[in-house]
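If it is no trouble, can you show me the amino acids of a protein and the tokens describing how it folds?
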Amino acid sequence: MNYFLFPFRLLWRIWFYVTILVLILLFFPLLFILTLKEEYYPNLWILIRFLSRILICAMGFRLKVSKDETIKANKSYMFCANHGSFLDPFVLAALSKNPIVFVGKKELVKFPIFGFFYKRVVIMVDRSNPKSRKRVFEMAKKRLRNGLSMAIFPEGLVPKEDVVLAPFKKGAFSLAIEFQIPIVPQVYYDCKRFFSWNIFKGSPGVLRIHQHKFLETKRLKATDVEMLKKQTFTIVHNSLIQDKKYMKDTNRYK
């Protein structure tokens, strides 16, 4: 580990949060108006995508995306990706023209200013509270009935550095089957490599994303949730362990 670079990396990370703060303040009136009503969400999503792309570029990142299948306009999907960085939701937002509602942890509400809009847009979950998980499920169903897509990082947490992929929770797959919407498995190879929670690591670079062929849920039943969950996990896990850069950089040879 090169500690000489630590001051520069620290400044770079501070720049990340400063950029978020500046963007929110610049667009505060528009953000506030577009979060007043749920029917404004498609327009809010256009702004979220725009701001996410600015943030990614401002940090010195470039997206390199490969797709086995592309999403269609005006159709609902369940986006499932590996989670290893605070950057992940911004990457997902930058990639999708279809409005997506995120399910995220409530701890991010504590961030000044960002938290104000976060709680108005994201379906928050307290993973230690069973009642909270049930409330999230009901809110997610309401959004899906309105024709939106959902994004859930199915690991339910940010795994430790030496973990390739944490076990998946079943919530995303239960919802996908109930509403008969396809699962979109996405693999983020570089978000954790270049922007992990470890402040001694990180640098600008190319963020590679692979969008796998969708998993259809038509004709699947509630009893198929476990099968669908394992199938999605296998796709994402195999993609990660087969990527030499991902494995070498993080010493994940398990």
